[in-house]
Design a protein that fits this description.
The protein is of the alpha+beta class. The chain folds into two domains: 160 residues, no CATH class; 189 residues, Heat Shock Protein 90 (2-Layer Sandwich). Helix content is 54%, strand content 13%. It is built from eight helices and seven strands, in the order αααααβαββαββαββ. The chain has a five-stranded mixed sheet, with helices on one face. β6 and β7 form a beta hairpin. The two termini are 15 Å apart. 20% of the residues are buried. InterPro entries: Bact_2-comp_sensor_kinase, HATPase_C_sf, Sig_transdc_His_kin_internal. Keywords: Kinase, Membrane, Transferase, Transmembrane, Transmembrane helix. Pfam families: His_kinase. One of its GO terms (molecular function) is kinase activity. This is Histidine kinase.
Length: 353
């Protein structure tokens, strides 16, 4: 809402500046001479003409440019622009005459308006000036057309960039589901091979995780408590699968309610720790801490570096780093410490709704 109000105010002030543009430089060397709309019919008629120009420029910006210029009909567009320029020059010539100036109220004595008396030194005759006015009209017209084009092209480029970013995010998000499902099914498969009694519980936990992915993963943002519940189910599933082969510590601190976050933006860092920090024959330890303070969430994930079949970071982690740069520009801090014996990730992210 604030952004809309700011845009409307900007348009309003641009319109006012446009109407005052022809009066910015006067023949007597002044910087600004406001139009004398009360006593000068010449000023009234040209203020009317410039108001028509302003309406045309808005029409040009909101209709002609998007419907004709951006439809690859540039020749037709510039033809229309040229015709309108000739029209405004003609109307300037036609109306800048005392007999045709319908805004010269002196011609209508029976509809006499109460006016302030003119200054003593004011000329009694109609003060025109077509040659000078032509240059003003052409200048204002060209400035308006060029400005409209520049604003429209800039706005179009920003929209194209935004659409490109949305496409990239959709592609990255589409990679998450099969990637996560593949890893989780491997976990349950390992339990089934061992004929572990916890296999049924793991299937239930997986169903909860998949329900979340199907229901909420495509949302732009989601309540933080739902995302953290998803993370808790994931950790419990890993505990079920790994048993006592790895020491898993998980801490959550802070108020989770009233906060929002992009779905599946945290899980890859946690998943990466389980993927590369677990080896039954080595000292395996995974430490996960989530702290929420005010509008910021801090995620700390660390794991001992052990021999792992998957020695390189997977698509999930790379995916998440790219999504963070797109979705949280200047709203997150990511630190990765890859030491000799430990891999540590610290992420601070704004979770205010």
């Amino acid at each position: 809402m604030k952004k809309n109000i700011t845009s409307y105010l900007l348009i309003f002030f641009v319109c006012i500046a446009f109407l005052l543009l022809p009066y910015m430089f006067t023949s007597n060397g002044g910087v600004l001479k406001l139009p004398n709309l009360v006593n000068n019919p010449h000023d009234r008629i040209y203020f009317f003409i410039y108001s028509m120009l302003l309406i045309f420029f808005l029409f040009n910006y909101y209709y002609l440019i998007p419907k004709i210029y951006f439809s690859k009909k540039q020749l037709l567009y510039f033809g229309i622009i040229s015709l309108f320029l000739l029209f405004f020059l003609w109307i300037s010539t036609h109306l800048d005459h005392p007999d045709r100036n319908f805004l010269d109220f002196n011609k209508y004595p029976k509809f006499h308006l109460k006016r302030l008396p003119p200054p003593p030194n004011m000329k009694k005759h109609f003060d025109g000036g077509p040659p000078t006015q032509y240059s003003h009209t052409i200048l204002v017209y060209l400035i308006g057309v060029v400005s409209s084009l520049l604003f429209a092209i800039n706005n179009r480029l920003r929209n194209v960039e935004k659409e490109k970013m949305q496409s990239e995010l959709s592609f990255l998000k589409a990679q998450i589901n099969p990637h996560f499902l593949f890893n989780t099914l491997n976990s349950i498969y390992a339990l089934a091979i061992k004929k572990d009694d916890k296999t049924a519980d793991a299937v239930v936990q997986l169903s909860e995780l998949m329900r979340y992915i199907i229901t909420n993963a495509n949302d732009d943002v989601i309540a933080l408590d739902k995302e953290l519940n998803y993370i808790d189910n994931f950790i419990q599933l890993q505990k079920t699968r790994l048993g006592n082969t790895v020491e898993i510590k998980y801490e959550l601190d802070g108020n989770v309610y009233g906060k929002c976050i992009t779905p599946l933006i945290l899980i890859s860092f946690i998943e990466n720790a389980f993927k590369h920090g677990v080896n039954p024959n080595q000292d395996s330890e995974i430490n996960i801490k989530i702290n929420i303070e005010d509008e910021f969430l801090t995620l700390f994930v660390s794991n001992n570096k052990v021999d792992s079949v998957q020695s390189q970071s997977g698509i999930g982690l790379q995916n998440t780093i790219e999504r963070l740069s797109h979705l949280y520009p200047k709203k997150h801090e990511l630190s990765i410490d890859d030491s000799q014996n430990k891999y540590t990730v610290t992420l601070k992210i704004n979770v205010g709704c």
